[in-house]
Amino acid sequence: MEQLLQEIVAKYNYWLYIILMMIGLYAIISKNNLIKKLVGMNIFQTAIILFFISISYKEQATIPIIRNAHGPGHVSPEAIQATAYMNPLPHVLMLTAIVVSVATFGVALAIAVKVYGEYETLEEDEIRTRIREKIK
Amino acid sequence: MLEHIPVLLILAPLLAAFLVTGLAWIQSAYCLPLALAGLLGSLLASIAALHQVMAQGALSYEMASWPPPVGIELRIDLFNSLVLVVVSAVSLINLVASWEFIKREFEDRKETFLALYLLFVTGLLGVTATADLFNLYVLLEITSLSAYALIAMGPSSRAPLASLHYVYLGVIGASFYLLGVGYLYIMTGSLNMGDIASLLPAIWSSQTVLVGFVFCLVGVWIKMAFFPMHIWLPNAYTYASMTASRVLAPLMTKVMVYVMIRLMLTVFGAQYIFRVLDLGPVIVWLAVLAIVAGAVMALVQRNLVKMLCYIIVSEIGYMVGGAWMGNQAGMTGSILHLINDALMTFAVFLAAGNFAFKLGELRLENLRDLFARMPLSSAGFVLAGMSIVGIPPTCGFFSKWYLISGGLQAGQHAYVAALLLSSLINAILFMRVVEYAYFGEVRTGHGHHGGHAHGGEMDEAPVAMVACLLLVVASLVLVGLYSESIVSGMIQPFLVRSFV
Predict the structure, then answer these.
(1) What mean pLDDT is reported for chain A?
(2) Residue B324 contacts A, CB cutoff 8 Å
(3) Which of B152, B172, B185 sits opposite A111 (nearest CB)?
(4) ipTM of the complex
(5) Which residue of B67, B155, B167, B464 shows the fewest CB atoms closer than 10 Å?
(6) DSSP label at A64?
(7) For chain B, what is the domain count?
(8) pLDDT above 90 (res B83)
């Protein structure tokens, strides 16, 4: 038990992202309202963004901007120590992923507006009954 | 100029998409020529790339001159040069064939449609050409976003809902893929496919690599509509505009199969996939399920397009099963079937589009007497159907041959049986359509005889639509006849390093 707790606390960022991801997935699967599903989808994407952000974090490390790197002969000795800096690449990747997720959310909301225009409801069970009525 | 070919073939449609969006406000008459020029540009560039790859081996292009492990690399080898040619050719031919249809269906929104169409093609070409895992994710989302919009524009009242369901599953798929890339990044610190491939053998036993691989695989499976994850596909492609599903159906799923094979062979390596993991038999069983389920569900459909969609689900099962067979014959069959199935599905959707242009909704009963009215399109449909069933002179036969021999070599008899069964079911499906179209009088189930002129005069689709269909059908036979040289000239040299 002690060991398990230590495992959880040591890797809490992974646990958090998994919990968030499952909340999102649960919403996509079980919610009846199309917009709630979309919000679940966004939570799902955000969980992955947080995962990427957290993997590049290091204790006692700073942002990767080298101080006094410009100008002649001023490079400080710690500038070349990779351990002193966080890895910026996952953060940069997530900038792109955020753009992707915003774009997806926008497109999905626009489509949801079209769905609403068609059925005048966003509850999935009501839409289903409308479709069935139309077929009859 | 020549060394920029790999990036030009992606930039041409991208640039055209932007220009089309702008020109729509000023002079909309130039939009179509511009779009055609963009697609023609990428077709010519991909043929040139194919030519270069054949002559001097894989092309590598460094984006903005940043060398590979850091910068983004585009890499074109024997495998994806073939896929690139198919993607650009199919999208160009479809635009030529569908323009009349697009004008009728979208009227004042046709420029929007064109821009989305071009973005979709850009994404597909990018996914195929890139050698960077994260870049692949971004391009995949460009493809998917334009696909969602294209589907939602469809004329059917159910199109937006079908598209929204596709969004939910598509996003889950892409997110899983991204998560898998994250796990690989943790372990290797790299995103370049070649670089990861060289770093992985040292850490094959790692659980993280395994989980990363499984996440990538599940993500790609959702996107390619592999059987239990296929539920988005039939509605999305049926309710979309026929002009859009004609390009979505043959290309989207096939490019995702390409991504799966690329991950398996280039990133993880056949050694890891088949020796270290030994997942093959399980996944081949999943493929068996996919093949049978797709075929059976196709059998109960009364709508022609939906029937074709379920045939796609079953074909995806062929390709996944062949790829996971663990031998060279199976993988050869899978790659050849990827090319062939893109062409076959395209041909069959072109023919269905021609029918839809004249008939509207394609319920099987509506197809009565079709042969008398549209003889050329019906003939094209029958030939494309023959290829899907796998009758010898057409290309479908040859890839099925490799798949079956791969299955026999691996001792996967269930897979062989499922493949044969689904071929038989396909034969039944197409015979049923032929029965309606050619012998419409034989069955008199419903009383809807007054609808169409009987024994009626010819009423064929526009010339461009028919000509494109016949061109693609001819290519089915040609690819079939030359399949031996495609296999020995391109696929086997590509696979030779993987299977020793």
Answers:
(1) 85
(2) no
(3) B152
(4) 0.90
(5) B67
(6) S
(7) 1
(8) yes
In the three-class reduction of DSSP (H, G, I as helix; E, B as strand; rest coil), residue B132 is classed as: strand
Q: Which residues of B touch A48 (CB under 8 A)?
A: 175, 178-179, 182
Residues of A in contact with B175 (CB under 8 A): 44-45, 48
The model's pLDDT over B481-492, given as tens digits with 9 standing for 90+, comes to: 888 888 888 888
Q: Which of the pair, B156 or B335, is modelled with greater confidence?
A: B335
Positive/negative CA dihedral, B367, B240, B22, B39? negative
State whether B149 and A134 contact (CB < 8 Å): no
What would the pLDDT profile of B301-353 be if each residue is shown by its tens digit?
889 999 999 999 999 999 999 999 888 889 999 999 999 999 999 999 999 99
Structural domain harbouring A98: 2-60+81-135
Q: Which domain holds residue B402?
A: 279-500
SS (H, E, C) B288-346: HHHHHHHHHHHHCCCEHHHHHHHHHHHHHHHHHHHHCCCCHHHHHHHHHHHHHHHHHHH
Domain with A48 in it: what CATH number?
Answer: 1.10.287.3510
Q: Could you give the number of structural domains in chain A?
A: 1
Average pLDDT over residues B197-216: 90
What is the reported pLDDT for B205?
86
Interface of A with B (CB under 8 A): 25, 28, 34, 37, 41, 44-45, 48, 51-52, 55, 90, 93, 96-97, 100, 103-104, 107-108, 110-112, 114-115, 118-119, 127, 131, 134
| Closest Cβ–Cβ partner in B141, B158, B160 for A104 | B141
For the entire predicted model, the pTM comes to: 0.91
